[in-house]
């Protein structure tokens, strides 16, 4: 098991912090969009005319879709937090399954990944 240098970890920590900040902003914006809009604001209908049932269904779908995206992004935020903890514990960059170093190409693509490609494939199969 090769330990990643602290200078290398610092680079990934910066990336993770930037990604976390961006996602937190996105989640906040999505929460506002999904939960704070009134029916008339979200449909663009500012009149007091009764709304068609199909419009209500569309609004419900949009709200459910947005909430689903939020849940996905919140899962990513959890993974980012875990990666930041691994950096603090000087364990970042090593696969949590096999203990081998995670290739830099994988960390550059998914900086919050806790596992190498081989172990990720094994986990998906099981």
How much strand content do the residues show? Answer: under 5%
CATH superfamily: DksA, coiled-coil domain
Mean pLDDT: 79
Shape: flat
How many beta-strand segments?
0
Major sheet details:
none
Contiguous uncertain segments of 5+ residues: none
CATH A-level architecture: Up-down Bundle
Q: How many structural domains can be distinguished in the coordinates?
A: 1
For the record, what CATH class applies?
Mainly Alpha
CATH topology: Four Helix Bundle (Hemerythrin (Met), subunit A)
Q: Give the radius of gyration.
A: 20 Å
Key descriptive features of the protein:
126 residues, 5 helices, Four Helix Bundle (Hemerythrin (Met), subunit A), mainly alpha, 0% strand
Short summary of the structure?
This protein is mainly α and 126 residues long. Helix content is 68%, strand content 0%.
Write the layout of secondary structure elements.
Layout: H1 6-35, H2 39-43, H3 53-88, H4 104-109, H5 117-125
Helix pairs in contact: 1-3
What does this structure look like?
This protein is mostly helical. The model has no long low-confidence stretch (mean pLDDT 79). It contains 5 helices and no strands. It has helices at residues 6-35, 39-43, 53-88, 104-109, 117-125. The chain has a single domain (6-41, 55-125), classed as Four Helix Bundle (Hemerythrin (Met), subunit A) (Up-down Bundle), CATH 1.20.120.910. The longest helix has 36 residues, at 53-88. Helix content is 68%, strand content 0%. Helix 1 runs antiparallel to helix 3. The two termini are 25 Å apart.
